[in-house]
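Technical note accompanying the year-one report. For the benefit of new consortium partners, we illustrate the data format agreed upon in the data management plan: each record pairs a sequence with a structure-token string. No post-processing was applied to the example shown here.
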Amino acid sequence: GTTGVDWLRRSADHRFFPELWEARSDLEPGPSSW
């Protein structure tokens, strides 16, 4: 499946674009455990 790819993509976004990640977290509902 593409779950691994999506995870890597999100991990990269979180690592290189923390501001964008935080804004996205505020806009999109979801688990914020990590």
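Partners are asked to follow this layout when depositing records. The two ends are 22 Å apart (CA to CA).
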